[in-house]
Fold this protein.
Amino acid sequence: MKKFIYLILIMTVWVASCNPYGSQISQDMVGNYINPHTGEWKYGLFEEFAIYSNDFWDYESITDSEIVISNKSGKKSTLTIQQENDTCLIVNGEKVVKYDEEVDVNMYRMWPFVMVDPHYAACDGIKPDSSSFKNHEYKIDTAVVRLYMRNTAKGIRALNQRDINYTHYIQLFNYLEAKSISAKNLYSTDHYGYCFEYKIPVTGVSELPISELLNHSVYGYNSYANKLLNYVVEPNDTLMFYVYIDNVGIISLNGIGANTLCSGTNGRFNTEKNALMGMDFFPKSLMNNVDELVESKRKESLRLQEIMYTKNINLSEKFKTMVKNKMHYIFLNYMCSLEGGLDSIKNFYPFNEEEIFSTTTAFDFVCKYFSMANNDTLSCNPENLALHPDWIITETSDHGSRLKNPQILKDMGFSDNFIEFFRLMHAVQFYDDFSVFTGGLKDFELHAVMNQITKPDYKAYLEDKIKEKHKFHRFE
């Protein structure tokens, strides 16, 4: 028994003091490298693969001055390397510095006070960015999200975190639904962490709630996420995320207390979201009437302006636009619940249709207002549907269905394209990922919906959703 304990102690010391799996590059080069002036994440050089240009790359050859890498599509790239010191490299002529994962970002998190990530605060050359989100198109596109969740091979804790055939889930808000998407580890080995790739269906500026990014199991719908600043993903984006999970502390709805990096098509926005840790909206939300709510919005606007313009960071126009739109539609959402609020909302007619797809918070408001202000409803049966074939079939709280007149959407200023998308969204809700009770649309209801939907990709999305739901129930 003593020998066994002694052996365990020796193994513990060995695992804790060395790298048990070996490395294809020198250990002092392992880490993430960022542009010291802009905070942009440029390279990840790890023991068994590299991260570059928002993708995972295998090592083809390695010398003191050159690393040749290839990705899974067969593309090759050469990185010329000059190592200045332990924390600085010259890669392809560009100076990059190692991201310091020893900095405990939890020390800088003091909710509800917004703090700036010290990594980003140290950058001295962040340039203005006046780019805007893409114009919304009424079609369903695809985006790619890649994620590296790293823990070192050192220590018993790392060994305890190993999981064979590890599957990871992320949650997406894409206006049609809160969708749970899974992916398996891309590499056969999981010595140093896990690499995932997700191909996700997106419309408009879709959102990835930050806390759900770290979940490894199906997570229930988080309605509060619409009131928070989330990561964003647009059609045809490619995003890369890195999380050092050995260092994960606080995982809250509006932030991760861990060293987290982002790159890709909306890498700037997502990096800024990380940098302004703990940003929240309307932290004191108890308003008794419309006048108090309007005054609260005025104060909140000043508070957020102060945060964004006094932190000595050149925040992008995308970030400022998202904050402004989030706050405005949270404000309108609150207004729906106050006496006289539904009538007051009419003062905002007509609504900007493009703006509604700038954040799922805006779309969430439209859904709530449509439900609360629409008194023109009927039971959903074949007779009523025959009389009103263009009315929208909506799910009720007791998992039944009602017909609602779309005229209120026209009054708000929305186009026929918007109404068609809105109709699809309500049909999708009958097959919600996070509802195990709904029986879906009845045959006559589904037939009516398909007759009103003209876009083939909309029909295909709904058909796929129905198949997913039926498959789920078969394995219950």
Q: What stands out?
A: Residues 139 and 203 are 7 Å apart (CA to CA). The first helix runs from residue 2 to 17. The chain has 14 helices and 23 strands.
